[in-house]
Amino acid sequence: MKQYHDLLQHILDHGNTKEDRTGTGTKSVFGYQMRFDLSEGFPMVTTKKLHLKSIIYELLWFLKGDTNIKYLTDNGVRIWNEWANEDGDLGPIYGHQWRNWNGEEIDQIKDIIETIKKNPDSRRMLVSAWNPSVMPNTSVSFAENVANGKAALPPCHAFFQFYVANNKLSCQLYQRSADVFLGVPFNIASYALLTMIVAQVCGYEPGDFIHTFGDVHIYNNHIEQVKLQLSREPRTLPTIKINPDVKEIFDFEFEDFTLENYDPHPHIKGAVAI
Ligand SMILES: Nc1nc(=O)c2c([nH]1)NC[C@@H]1CN(c3ccc(C(=O)N[C@@H](CCC(=O)O)C(=O)O)cc3)CN21
Ligand SMILES: O=c1ccn([C@H]2C[C@H](O)[C@@H](COP(=O)(O)O)O2)c(=O)[nH]1
């Protein structure tokens, strides 16, 4: 994961000192791109231990169209707890927009699978989680926004596009805002996995995952962790085995994924900015 280390170093070297919504403060740059060839291994950071379990359950949760944390917490995943209201709701975030855009029964995932299968040269294969009509009002609480039908947080991984060439499926994501130490390792692994399962159900090999950023930042309380991580030597990437019998995107279950040869350095703790 040289790409990820290069990004960390780039922000340390060139980041602007910037205040932010959470009051934590960041070092930030605007505009950056990384590319991962998925045939070279599964892009999971090796210089700190990541929990693939949280990543898989979160992706399956998005694909179900679910926006209540109950499914996550039932499976021991707590990464969305801080933003949910007392009923566990997050408002119309990713899952809602992916499967039922703007509440108009537009199933972007179902539609895109069909297009990739039938018209792989299409240049219109995008999924948008971005929906200006559900933007939260930042001067009221997450719960109050949810009560008003707004999203608790506007999507960070805002839209993605697929591309087919040479029998390979590639995916490019635009992420408007990126917490490089905590969120980005999750985001890379999640979209790499999404690309692999979409490729499988459409009959292609996985190609590249391209990660394009807007405001990409290191929070001030993650700087020491990042320096520790950069002092570690990246190891060989793991691989992930996906049950080849699953042919429908909505049929995947947690047990269909097996991570192999993951040998990371120890976990590094960091506080999440709320
Ligand atoms: N500031 C911030 N950063 C994020 O990455 C982020 C948000 N907010 N809000 C919405 C979601 C939630 N995401 C999160 C939230 C927490 C962790 C986290 O605490 N990760 C720990 C433990 C992971 C686990 O329990 O599996 C880590 O060390 O990676 C990761 C992603 C990504 N998003
Ligand atoms: O998948 C995700 C979700 C969120 N983040 C980060 C990016 C920012 O640090 C915060 C969101 O705050 P905004 O003020 O809405 O930009 O969460 C991420 O990296 N990945």
From TrEMBL:
Q: Which branch of life, at top level?
A: Bacteria
Per the UniProt record, which residue ranges are transmembrane? none
Keywords, alphabetical: Cytoplasm, Methyltransferase, Nucleotide biosynthesis, Transferase
Q: Which reaction does it catalyse?
A: dUMP + (6R)-5,10-methylene-5,6,7,8-tetrahydrofolate = 7,8-dihydrofolate + dTMP
Q: Which InterPro entries match?
A: Thymidate_synth/dCMP_Mease, Thymidate_synth/dCMP_Mease_dom, Thymidate_synth/dCMP_Mease_sf, Thymidylate_synthase
Binding positions for dUMP per the UniProt entry: 21, 123-124, 176-179, 187, 217-219
Does the record's keyword annotation contain Methyltransferase? yes
CDD domains to which the protein is assigned, alphabetical = TS_Pyrimidine_HMase (cd00351)
The primary site where this protein sits is cytoplasm
Q: For (6R)-5,10-methylene-5,6,7,8-tetrahydrofolate, which residues are the binding ones?
A: 51, 179, 273
State the pathway, as annotated in the record. Answer: Pyrimidine metabolism; dTTP biosynthesis
State the Gene3D superfamilies in the record. Thymidylate synthase/dCMP hydroxymethylase domain (3.30.572.10)
- EC assignment: the record states 2.1.1.45
One Pfam family cited in the UniProt record for this chain: Thymidylat_synt
Give the multimer and partner information. Homodimer.
Spell out the HAMAP family in the cross-references: Thymidy_synth_bact
Family recorded in the similarity comment = Belongs to the thymidylate synthase family. Bacterial-type ThyA subfamily.
Name of protein: Thymidylate synthase
Identify the species of origin.
Neptunitalea lumnitzerae
Q: Tell me the name of the encoding gene.
A: thyA
